[in-house]
């Protein structure tokens, strides 16, 4: 196995681990009730920052953070990615806390195809007819849900757009994955500390008032936030964006199952049709990718054996 193949293999499993953790996050967030959403957000960011910097200090990699901050181009892009992931976290935590786990899962079902479109229009990647058919099916599913429910599924669209764009930016930043996460959390943490200081002054500070279990979970939110993001950042830099899109199916599948079977959110026939169109799009896209990958490996094997390939 070549060095590049080994790197891609590690990136694949890193991204897979990230999506598995994210798929189970609704269970974690539900345990934090009745902590206000913004306070959950603030604790996630602050503790994630501490976890990341502790890890970097142990590894002796703190210099990578300062190097990224000293690079104006990297600093600008990481500021943008930090803002995007903050918005994404807020929308997601609010959606789960408000009983919209099913719609939030829709956002992450759409997200792989958003990544595909970003790859096309920003990175100038090309799609064949089958891949465009998959994108069209997904668009039809969103249109169906919008017309039948009577409103645009804004939670799903906001999650898909913010996280898809976040992945695109992180792919373009030549900064170590964990160091990049350190920069992102460092940029936002002062705002979160200021907010928590204000809640303490206003008498609405939740930490220490809702029991030891909630306090411990709020602290562990740093690990639950930092670990999958670091895995994702590593994976998105190591494997093609289209592959990341396919791996993302795991997260929303676990979220949907959690919302329907654990939290008993409704899943109507109308939603089933809309989701079904999007699932069909994912099957078409993934199937085409697997077929193309198999054909590429077969052609490579034939070339190595000296057999001419048409």
Radius of gyration: 21 Å
Tell me about the biggest sheet?
Answer: none
Average residue-wise pLDDT = 85
Whole-number count of domains: 1
DSSP strand (E) fraction?
under 5%
Number of helices: 13
Cα distance spanning the termini: 26 Å
Q: Helical amount among residues, as a percent range?
A: over 70%
Structural class: mainly alpha
Number of DSSP strand runs: 0
**Outline:** globular
Stretches where pLDDT falls below 50 for ≥5 residues? none
Description:
With 310 residues, the chain is mainly α. It is 82% helix and 0% strand. The chain contains 13 helices and no strands. The model has no long low-confidence stretch (mean pLDDT 85).
Short description:
82% of the residues lie in helices and 0% in strands. It has 310 residues and is mostly helical. The longest helix has 36 residues, at 269-304.
Give descriptors for this structure.
310 residues, mainly alpha, 13 helices, 82% helix, globular
List the helices and strands and how they pair.
Elements lengths: L2 H21 L1 H6 L6 H23 L2 H9 L1 H26 L3 H21 L7 H21 L4 H19 L4 H26 L9 H27 L2 H7 L2 H13 L6 H36 L6
């Amino acid at each position: 196995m070549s060095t590049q193949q080994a790197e891609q293999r590690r990136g694949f499993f890193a991204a897979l681990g990230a999506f598995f953790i994210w798929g189970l996050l609704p269970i974690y967030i539900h345990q934090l009730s009745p902590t206000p959403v913004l306070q959950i957000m603030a604790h996630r960011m602050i503790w994630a920052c501490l976890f990341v910097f502790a890890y970097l200090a142990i590894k002796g990699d703190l210099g990578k953070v300062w190097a990224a901050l000293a690079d104006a181009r990297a600093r600008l892009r990481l500021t943008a990615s930090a803002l995007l992931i903050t918005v994404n976290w807020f929308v997601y935590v609010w959606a789960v806390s408000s009983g919209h786990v099913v719609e939030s899962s829709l956002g992450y079902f759409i997200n792989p195809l958003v990544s595909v479109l970003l790859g096309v229009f920003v990175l100038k990647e090309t799609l064949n007819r089958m891949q465009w058919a998959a994108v069209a099916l997904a668009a039809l599913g969103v249109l169906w849900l919008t017309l039948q429910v009577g409103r645009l599924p804004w939670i799903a669209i906001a999650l898909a757009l913010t996280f898809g764009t976040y992945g695109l930016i992180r792919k373009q930043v030549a900064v170590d994955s964990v160091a990049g996460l350190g920069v992102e959390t460092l940029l936002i943490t002062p705002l979160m500390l200021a907010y928590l200081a204000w809640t303490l002054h206003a008498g609405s500070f939740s930490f220490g008032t809702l029991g030891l279990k909630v306090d411990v979970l709020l602290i562990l939110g740093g690990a639950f936030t930092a670990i999958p993001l670091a895995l994702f950042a590593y994976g998105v830099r190591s494997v093609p964006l289209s592959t990341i899109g396919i791996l993302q199916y795991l997260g929303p599948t676990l979220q949907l199952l959690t919302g329907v079977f654990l939290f008993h959110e409704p899943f109507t026939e109308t939603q089933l049709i809309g989701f079904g169109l999007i699932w069909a799009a994912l099957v078409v896209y993934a199937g085409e990718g697997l077929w193309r990958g198999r054909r590429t490996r077969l052609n490579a094997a034939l070339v190595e054996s000296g057999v001419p390939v048409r």
